[in-house]
Amino acid sequence: MYPIITVTLNPAVDVSTSVQSLQPEKKLRCAAPRTEPGGGGINVARVLHRFGEKVLPVYFAGGCNGGLLTAQLTSAGMAVAPVGMLAETRENLHVSDISNGRQYRFVMPGPSVRMRRTSPC
């Protein structure tokens, strides 16, 4: 039994990179991207897990990003309870500007998840 269960309705794969200087309309050479699990409940579950708590994140997962999200959580030693969906789990982009130390966070919209009625009424 898990004493703490988190629920994340709109999880994400967070992709982080950096550039020397963020400039409009130019090709910007990025550092190698890093990915990690994201979304409010997922982040809470990861912190609790690091502190040694037994936690079970429940979250929607779909497509390649959903598989990556689940793989990253399980490789960190966490038990998981993904709820499958047909839509792709969203991806966010974080870009750090090395010249000024600022970070820009691009948060993508999540997919629409439709539930099927269980009764004809």
Radius of gyration: 17 Å
Order of strands side by side in the largest beta sheet?
Answer: 3-2-6-7
The largest sheet is:
4 strands, mixed
By DSSP (H or I, 4+ residues per run), the number of helices equals 2
The tally of strands reads 7
Q: From the helix content, strand content and strand pairing, which structural class follows? A: alpha/beta
Average pLDDT rating: 93
Query: Class in CATH?
Result: Alpha Beta
Number of domains: 1
CATH fold category name: UDP-N-acetylmuramoyl-L-alanine:D-glutamate ligase
Shape: globular
Give the low-pLDDT segments: none
**CATH architecture annotation name:** 3-Layer(aba) Sandwich
Give the % helix.
10-25%
Question: What keyword list fits this structure?
Answer:
7 strands, 20% helix, globular, 35% strand, UDP-N-acetylmuramoyl-L-alanine:D-glutamate ligase, four-stranded mixed beta sheet, alpha/beta, PfkB family carbohydrate kinase
Topology:
Blueprint lengths: L3 E5 L3 E8 L14 E5 L1 H11 L4 E7 L1 H13 L5 E4 L5 E8 L4 E5 L15
Parallel strand pairs: 1-4, 2-6, 4-5
Antiparallel strand pairs: 2-3, 6-7
Q: What does this entry show, briefly?
A:
This protein has about 120 residues and is of the alpha/beta class. The chain has helices at about 40-50, 65-75, and strands at about 5-10, 10-20, 35-40, 55-60, 80-85, 90-95, 100-105. The chain has a single domain (about 5-20, about 30-105), classed as 3-Layer(aba) Sandwich (UDP-N-acetylmuramoyl-L-alanine:D-glutamate ligase).
How would you characterize this protein structure?
- The strands form 2 sheets. The chain has a 4-stranded mixed beta sheet.
- By secondary structure, it is of the alpha/beta class.
- It is globular and about 50 Å long.
- It has one domain (4-21, 32-106): UDP-N-acetylmuramoyl-L-alanine:D-glutamate ligase (3-Layer(aba) Sandwich).
- Helix 2 (63-75) links the parallel strand 4 and strand 5.
- The model has no long low-confidence stretch (mean pLDDT 93).
- 21% of the residues are buried.
- 20% of the residues lie in helices and 35% in strands.
- Pfam families: PfkB (PF00294).
- Keywords: Kinase, Transferase.
- InterPro entries: Carboh/pur_kinase_PfkB_CS (IPR002173), PfkB_dom (IPR011611), Ribokinase-like (IPR029056).
